[in-house]
Amino acid sequence: MSAADSNKIPSEEILTRKWDECISNVIVKSGIGLSVGIVASALVFKKRSWPISVSTGLGLGYALSQCERNFNPTLVPVAKKVQQEKK
């Protein structure tokens, strides 16, 4: 067995790592959005509820877009440009 064969990571492990990163991103970024929304609601918007919803949604959306890029890196415009240059 060569050194290259021993360094290969199984595809299941790669997929598991991507899912773990995606789930942790969703939890962290939604939590940060929720926290920012609560602070903004209490300090700036006279305790209204819409800043909490908006900031949580923005955090969730950002996390999901990062997950999508992680699973499909060809969606990133820079990756498309690099692939075209290699051809």
TrEMBL record:
UniProt keyword terms in alphabetical order: Membrane, Mitochondrion, Mitochondrion inner membrane, Transmembrane, Transmembrane helix
Coiled coil feature spans: none
Membrane topology field: Single-pass membrane protein
Family matches, as Pfam families: DUF543
UniProt GO cellular component terms: MICOS complex
Compartmental location: Mitochondrion inner membrane
Major location (coarse): mitochondrion
InterPro entries hit by this protein: Mic10
Subunit comment: Component of the mitochondrial contact site and cristae organizing system (MICOS) complex.
Function: Component of the MICOS complex, a large protein complex of the mitochondrial inner membrane that plays crucial roles in the maintenance of crista junctions, inner membrane architecture, and formation of contact sites to the outer membrane.
The protein's name: MICOS complex subunit MIC10
Lineage: Eukaryota, Fungi, Fungi incertae sedis, Mucoromycota, Mortierellomycotina
